[in-house]
Amino acid sequence: MFALLAFAGLANAQVVFDFSTDDAYTLFGLSGFSATPSGQPAVTDGDITSDVSTTSSDVTITVSPSGKTNANRMWSGSLRLYGGTMTVSASRKNITAIKFTLNSSKWGANNSADCGTLETGSWAGNASTVVITIAANTQIKKMEVFQEGDDTPVTIDWTSSATSPLTVAQVLQKGAQLDEGADSGKEVYVKGKISQITEIGTVNESTGEAYGNATYSISDDGSTSSELVVFRGFGLNGAKLAQGDINVGDEVVVVGKIKNFKNQDGSTTLEVNQGNKLYSLNGQTEGGDTPGPGPQPQVEYTPQGDGSFANPYNIDAIRSMDAQSTSEAVQTEVWVKAVVFGYITSSTLSENTIRTAPAEGEEVTKSNLVLIDASHNDVTALPNIAYMTPVNLPTGDVRDALNLGDNSNLIGQTIWVCGDVLKYMGVPGLKNVKKYSLDGTTVQPGGDTPGPGPDPQTIDWTSSADAPLTVAQALEKASKLEGGADSGKDVYVKGKISQIDEISPKLTDGSGYGNATYYISDDGTTTNQFYVYRGKSLNGADFTLEDEIKVGDEVVVVGVIKNYVKNETSTLEFIQGNKLYSLNGQTGGDTPEPEYLELPTIARAKAAATNAGNGVNAIFKANDLLVAYVNGKSVYVFDGTDGLLLYANSAATNEGIKTGDKVTADFKGQLKVYNGLTEIAVASIENLTVNSSNNTVTPQTVTIADITNSFADYENELVTIKDLTPAADAWASRNITFTDDSDNELVVRDNWSVATALTFDTSKAYSVTGFVAIYANATATTVQLYPRAAEDIDNGEAPVVYEPTGDGQLSNAYTVEDVRHLGLLKPEQGAPAGWVSGYIVGYVNGQSYNNGCVFSAEAPAAAPAHRAEGEEPQVSNTNILLSDDPSCTDPAKCIPVQLANKLGMREALSLRDNPNYLHKKVWVEGTLTPYFSVAGVKEVVDWSFDGETWTTGVHAPKADMTSKAIYTVAGQRISTIAQPGLYIIGGKKVLVK
């Protein structure tokens, strides 16, 4: 069983193949690199058209042709593979690890190996030959091959789950071991509190469209120390984010790859990489319900020991036991050796109930201990609770000797305890403890020190893929195992499936475990069966179909064999973590890809779409197709007659495609009808070529009757409908209904949260542009229109242009009302800077502006939700509220001003230190920019109490109001003004007619 791999600190690699050198093509005997120079014929000197090999020391790499449109080839800087195989073989010592240094993180998501464990950019196992099947674009700059006897590469265990996320401290500690540009190779769950927000709703500068992602930082305590950057992440279930969707102080669980990103200046930034999303926000998951504790996280355990005093169990062994009863023991009187971590304050093991020392006013719980293996004990942060075991301490000698209230010196010490394995505090734990040892030699209380016990019986488990054991041989050998013992190594067994208990396929919505529980026998009958518990499919892949295996199938299973004991009943079995080596003679490398329906046109896709299950495997072969719109996972394409939605599994899949492109590509995924709308759930985009860019996307002018009566003719197409009257003045759950002159109704949905700030005049007629969609459920089917931006909803009247009262000079400072209109841009978008005057009317408590405004100089009634344990409510010293009215108590007429912890600013201006400043007028110099997701002032560098003299003499640069820099109201910088509208020029809003 291998850890989830991300290599770091590699040393003494025996063999290195460097494909990034200027003459790397000579490794394979090629005449040069392949290239596609602009405006010139392609160069194919580096194309691999037959098997090629290169050897260093005793290691040989053989690359086959791709078998796809793009040839495998040597490119300047990397070996680029699109299909086929890469075979790594060694003639003397087996290969134990391979590390791939990738170009731009390019790695085929479905790449597979015929043995060992393959992750993004790494392989681990023990074999003389490793065959890696390339599924998609993989670009390798360097390979480092390790063999038996080499220093073992350091691995990073990124094990986490939605119910057992890593802390920020854990991610920072693990991430520090990543090489420059390397990532975790898999998605990681991390829990923290948002400490600062850099931006929300990032804008595509070439199109002016909002991506709907956010860049922010999280920390364990919500402070700005020990932060982890979350780069361009999305919301719950990958939805778009807009202003106000997340706020500083929100508690989140983020899921995505962790990357040590190399910046242009050579520095590195540890971050949750682009394409991440929120799993939960303040305890809420998609759907709005607070999730329960859920099942225990699926983690990798490495059980050790046999439960004797001489060979005690480790914690992994206890946690891997199926303890479901609080009264009936799985095993009795077993010894466990582990490190004392702490104690639990309640009846459930959780991150919130574990203590290593009591909080102020809290007493130490003496009735239990928490034990952990030294290998899982992270001294810098709370380790994963899935690797901990609670131990009940009965009253008497055991409790007196081991409780941490009287024996705090035991924290961090290794001890031996003997008890029964039952369900305790919701997980496998130890109860009925009667004996213990503090030195591994002397048993307390009383009793004799047990001897070493008999030598374990030697069992020959020799087997291989080519020479597997029969089921009869496996049963005979396993019967010699003592209760609870296992083979200690992977064993290959061949048989026929005789009975299937359960198949839990992994579905595209993320549900299901992807494993199967079944029996095998030599003749396929239910006589002399061997139990296979929760096994995986070929190469350890998830089962994805309920009929992927059937009774009568011939299989070779590989995994650890155990004599599993529960309630004094023994079961000989393959334990969880096993997998199929072969199925009816097919191995992972030989199993053919599923058949895909080729779709040459959108019309063919619409005709073939089905509501059945997960849809059908399909490849949509786009040829010079117009990309009408790109937003996160959604890509709308139009062929001049029909429109189609291509909905990617990840927004990262759509990288390289933008609105206005004409593309030729193979979109590969599941064709389906989802909630009434035809789409392809795209898993990958292959053979992509952008033929041209910046093509005009022109909507069709239609009526409501057109799209409702002939929905199939307009589905997923961009249309404009004129002369519509809104039924309300505001959105309701992102929806608003419009009617036309014939009383036909149409629902306009702000599907991508691009027009949340709009209000509507029910007396005006609007022109609405958007994509034709439909929402269908069990009770209704509703045609809808999805606008791309706020400008898609237009009543023909330009907004009122606000003219600021001040100009930012100390003698003519901006008013609070000025800031509320001007303070909407970020600094990088040209946010103005200057002096602002107003009356101090309060402060913001916590992290939410609308709910946190306190209009006094006193502490709030309750401390903010993000407070530390035991923290009492107090006046915030990080900000003040200003208003033009000294008696104002309306948040809508105030602005927040950030007080940074520098220049003595907090001591000089905060109401915590200066309660007498309530209703006092003040001038502050800073940048007019969003703060608490509303217009505010940040980066304050000076202040004044009389409007004439200032304090520090340090001044922020004031916006050049004569600057030629032009921005749209969405924050996109443009070089020229092409059409009338509202723009920001030199920090001021200007109406251009």
Radius of gyration: 32 Å
The proportion of strand residues reads: 35-45%
Mean pLDDT metric: 81
How would you describe the shape? Answer: globular
Number of strands: 61
Taking the sheet with the most strands, its summary is: 8 strands, mixed
Secondary structural class: mainly beta
Low-pLDDT segments: 1-12, 287-298, 448-457, 865-869, 956-963
Q: Ends: how far apart?
A: 69 Å
Helix content: under 10%
The helix tally amounts to 10
Ordered list of secondary-structure elements with their pairings:
Elements: E1 7-8, E2 15-18, E3 34-35, E4 43-44, E5 52-56, E6 59-63, E7 73-75, E8 78-81, E9 85-90, E10 95-102, E11 112-113, E12 117-119, E13 122-127, E14 129-133, E15 138-147, E16 154-155, E17 166-167, H1 168-175, E18 188-200, E19 214-219, E20 228-236, E21 251-256, E22 258-262, E23 268-272, E24 277-281, H2 315-319, E25 331-344, E26 354-355, E27 368-372, E28 388-392, H3 397-402, E29 414-424, E30 427-437, E31 469-470, H4 471-478, E32 486-504, E33 515-521, E34 530-538, E35 554-566, E36 569-574, E37 579-583, E38 586-587, E39 597-599, H5 602-608, E40 616-631, E41 634-638, E42 643-648, E43 662-674, E44 677-692, E45 700-702, H6 704-709, H7 711-714, E46 718-726, E47 735-739, E48 745-749, E49 766-776, E50 781-786, E51 793-794, H8 816-822, E52 833-844, H9 849-852, E53 853-854, E54 879-883, E55 894-898, H10 905-909, E56 921-931, E57 934-944, E58 966-968, E59 973-974, E60 981-985, E61 988-992
Parallel strand pairs: 17-18, 20-23, 20-24, 31-32, 34-36, 34-37, 39-40, 42-44, 45-46, 48-50
Antiparallel strand pairs: 1-16, 2-15, 3-4, 5-6, 6-9, 7-8, 8-15, 9-14, 10-13, 10-15, 11-14, 12-13, 18-19, 18-21, 19-20, 21-24, 22-23, 25-26, 25-27, 25-29, 27-28, 29-30, 32-33, 32-35, 33-34, 35-36, 35-37, 37-38, 40-41, 40-43, 41-42, 43-44, 46-47, 46-49, 47-48, 49-50, 49-51, 52-53, 52-54, 52-56, ...
